[in-house]
Amino acid sequence: MQFVSHYQSPIGPVTLVAEGDALVGAWFNDQRFFGSTLTPSAVAGVMPVLNDAARWLDDYFKGMRPEYLPALSLAGSDFRLRVWRLLVEIPYGQTTTYWDLGEKVAQNAGKRRMSAQAVGGAVGHNPICIFVPCHRVLAANGSLAGYAGGLERKEFLLRLEGINIKRVYCR
């Protein structure tokens, strides 16, 4: 059974979803692909992992670097899971590019290359925003590009982490 709670962040409400002892969803309420892992039978509730997630977000939005990560459970295709696991490895205050992620996915799969667009699609469908830091992925030229929660939020999150944005919007 899934349990849902709501967190009020400085950049809009976030819906948190837990199943068992792991976080399975975290979305800004108006973002694309909202609720992709949310089941119709989910109920409002309090779970230890939801409390952990809220504390983590409190620390994060205070500009602190949380020392822990709530238990996460990602569900998706093999390709998406490979991309999302790489996202979790991007350190706080650092970024990578869709191109670089594509190179890592290709290398890990024993392939010569991987489409940055395919990687971007997987990044965009990340069901656990902020915790799985898809906001740390930039265009090849270092500018902002794509974020299911909106580019303004992406910019806010990067600046919160002390990342200097080269250019606000990529066209």
Task: Summarize the model shown.
With 171 residues, the protein is an alpha/beta fold. It is 33% helix and 17% strand.
Could you walk me through the main structural features you see in this protein, from its secondary elements to its overall organization?
The protein is an alpha/beta fold. The protein is 33% helix and 17% strand. It has 5 helices and 6 strands. Helix 2 (78-88) crosses helix 3 (98-109) and helix 3 (98-109) packs across helix 4. The termini are far apart.
Rough shape?
globular
Strand order of the largest sheet: 3-2-1-4
Are there runs of 5+ residues with pLDDT below 50, and where?
Answer: none
Q: Fraction of residues in helices?
A: 25-40%
How many strands in all?
A: 6
- Mean pLDDT, all residues: 91
Structural class: alpha/beta
Largest sheet: 4 strands, mixed
The string of secondary-structure elements, in order, is EEEEHHEHHEH
Distance between the termini: 42 Å
Beta-strand content bin: 15-25%
User: What is Rg?
Assistant: 16 Å
How many helices? The count is 5
Considering the chains and any ligands shown, give keywords for the structure.
alpha/beta; 171 residues; single chain; 4-stranded mixed beta sheet; two-stranded parallel sheet
Write the layout of secondary structure elements.
Layout: E1 2-9, E2 12-19, E3 22-28, E4 43-44, H1 48-61, H2 78-88, E5 96-97, H3 98-109, H4 116-124, E6 137-138, H5 151-160
Helix pairs in contact: 2-3, 3-4
